[in-house]
Amino acid sequence: MADRELPSSDRVLLVEGQDDKHVVLHLCRRSESMPTFCISDKDGIARLLDSISPEIKVSGRKSVGILVDANDEPENRWKAIRSRFQQLDLHLPEEPEPNGTILSAVPPAVPRIGIWLWPDNQCPGELEDFVKSMIPSKDPVWPRSEEYIDRIPEPDRKFLPGKEMKAKIYAWLATTKTPGRMGTAIKAKMLDADGPLALKFTDWLRRLFT
Question: Residue 31 half-sphere exposure, CB side, CA atoms within 13 Å?
């Protein structure tokens, strides 16, 4: 599994930021039979959307994956992605596939296309909602982390509205032996990489990049 950007790679996953990249890298390292691909951090959704056309047009490209947050309105995020493909005369389904969208019926000169909306292609949310699904169900600290964030009065909150889950995840990470990034918690096996949603995601990666 490559951990650096290789612009000439024939298989590339486009992500919004470093946290996405870190989580994907460590999930892949915990997974068996994962094909090789590179991850390109586009530093935000606007730059990622703008990169879709040039990335697809790279000579010799075989597969392009697109990984983005659904945020509060998955329908609007999906429409934004569909519009970029319509400009290329490529047509996505009306809604994302629950198991991850993969476009296989494309012209010969176009690479295989895959799209995943964090957390699960259907619900509102983002990377942190996906990571929450990997916290073991009997983890004794997680309910306390949720309560800690929920009890902070709104005027005293330093995180942005709608980012409660992100705050809860990082409150939980702060209690671990080596507080750090979400990918580090996967590496340390504090997060369950064999849960249903994580397995669905890594299966999408295999289908896209094999």
Answer: 23
| Residue corresponding to tokens 């056309």 | 53
Q: Which amino acid is at 136?
A: P
How do 112-118 and 101-103 pair as beta strands? Answer: antiparallel
116 vs 129: CA distance, rounded Å: 14
CA-closest candidate to residue 42, choices 71, 67, 23, 77: 67
Domains, the chain, ordered by start? 11-126+193-209 (3.40.50), 128-187 (no CATH)
The tens digit of pLDDT for each residue in 88-137 reads: 999 999 999 999 999 986 777 789 999 999 999 999 999 999 999 999 99
| Cβ atoms < 10 Å from Cβ of 20 | 25
Rounded to whole angstroms, how far apart are CA atoms 143 and 146?
5
Please tell me the pTM assigned to this model.
Answer: 0.92
Side-chain-facing half-sphere of 15: CA atoms under 13 Å: 21
Query: In terms of residues, how long is the chain?
Result: 210
